[in-house]
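Worked example (supplementary).
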Amino acid sequence: MSIYLALALSWAGALAYRPFLDPLNLDRPWLVLSVPMVLAVAVVYKAIKLEDLSHLPRHALGMAAQVLILMAVAAGLLWALTELM
Amino acid sequence: MTSTHESPRPSVHVLAAFAGWLAPGLGHALIGEKQRGLIIAAAVGGLWIAGLLLGGVTVIDRYAPPEGEQGMPVRRLALPFLGQVMIAPSCVIAVWNARYAVPTWGYPPPAPRDQVAHKPPFSPSFGRMNEQGVLYTALAGLLNLLAIIDVLYRHSQFAAGGVA
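After joint prediction of all chains, the assembly is encoded as:
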């Protein structure tokens, strides 16, 4: 019963959300928010660097993937450094 | 020894750069790079709007939370605001936010009655959502700075005609 009450309350909270005035409740999946951020950085960087914009999607996706992979590797190394050593 | 052939002065698009500060991508559109301008507008504008949706308008604040002793807090400029200010609409939001700022410095502290009179129409954000909102908007501003510098010195066929 309590789970239904919690669901109802969370839906009520979502309905009460006023865009730009209230913060969104995305505390748990906050790490996923780095993906659109990295994608936007890659798109702007490549839009400025490339002369021919027809190659933009491929180059931007490649750069975003490189950044995300490097971030994951750096996070893994730091985790190993602090937890295993 | 002087050369008789002078190299042409590179054109500097000051007006287009200012337009790019007012609205991301507008500077590129003004010098004839409409597609590039649209892409920059979508990416930078989207990131900025996403930051405001995540953390609300309170993510754009000129001042960091006050520090110091009770009654004598020290106000200092928020470093992310230096990035956020690279998009002109951030300034409008910062000025609008400041209207609702309750003065927490000085002595005596404001009376509760004054605090109620200053009640803002928005909810402040804290924690992760505030961090993400600040990060998104500051990063959008820094990317717009990159676009402004690019449009300032970009050579395009439209600008060669002497528009900007």
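Two points are worth noting when inspecting this output. The CA atoms of residues 59 and 72 of chain A lie 20 Å apart. The two ends of chain A are 46 Å apart (CA to CA).
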